[in-house]
Amino acid sequence: MFDRQWRQRSDPADSRLKDIPYWTTTEALVSDAIPERLAVIGSSVVAVELAQAFAQLGSRVTILARNSLFFREDPAIGATLTKVFSAEGIEVMEHTLASQVTHTNGEFVLITNHGETRTDKLLVATGRSPNTRTLVLDAAGVATNEQRAIIIDQGMRTSRPHIYAAGD
């Protein structure tokens, strides 16, 4: 089984982004414009890859990380990456949450626990929600977690040994 069905836009956990024209990772990848200023909400591998790519293309980039970079994957690598990004001119704001986001006259204003950040584009890279509801996984005996993501082992096997799952 190959599950590559993901929602194009994850629903925000609250209404702060409901009417805000933010970028998803997909929208950032297909953009034909390089913003002068880019704020990235998220600290995952994809978030930091895109942050660095836009910085190398000329954007002034600020990453807002709820914790630290790669805090789940490898905190030591995250700490090193934060130092490298600082040397490259990328601002990493750790332990930062946006309590309010507005978009007026082409500018985003993010109110955070560390002050105000203004930017031309806002990239929200906090993860995707799996779109597995139509796959009838229960009938196949394939286990999922609370978010309906397929649970796999190191070999990408599901709870059914003859069914494999892959996705991004």
Automatic annotation (TrEMBL):
Gene Ontology MF term list: flavin adenine dinucleotide binding; NAD(P)H dehydrogenase (quinone) activity
Domain called FAD/NAD(P)-binding: residue spans: 18-168
Family matches, as Gene3D superfamilies: FAD/NAD(P)-binding domain
Xref: Pfam families: Pyr_redox_2 (PF07992)
SUPFAM superfamilies: FAD/NAD(P)-binding domain
PANTHER family on file: MERCURIC REDUCTASE
Protein name: FAD-dependent oxidoreductase
